[in-house]
Amino acid sequence: MPRAVALALEAAGIPPSAVDGEGRRVRTGYRVAEGPEGRAQVSWAGPPGSGAAGEEGDRLAECAAVLERLGWVCLVYRGRRGRRFVEVEAPR
Q: 25 — phi, psi (to 5°)?
């Protein structure tokens, strides 16, 4: 599921986040992880000081809109430290 979500977001031209060889985040963009019960979780991440937290609301709404057009069900939640993420469920 996370791989399918990442491919859909990439195809829509939304940039993925990236880390360097030492695990430091070097680019702002979406991050997809395995969620509970076969769902995926999309978050917006960036290097320290990049402003990713300030833009996550708009950027995650963009991600959700792309996925919803493809038939997936998206719900926005607040996680640790109040950061938002989108939980994505496959079409039925």
A: -70, 130
Distance of CA 51 to CAs 39, 40, 88, Å? 27, 24, 24
- Residues 29-88 have pLDDT tens digits of 999 999 999 999 999 999 999 999 999 999 999 999 999 999 999 999 998 788 999 999
Nearest alpha-carbon partner for 12 in 72, 54, 79, 87: 72
Which three-class secondary structure state does DSSP give residue 63?
helix
0.85 exceeded by the pTM? yes
Tokens of 91: 């079409």
Sign of CA dihedral 73, 17, 3, 37: negative
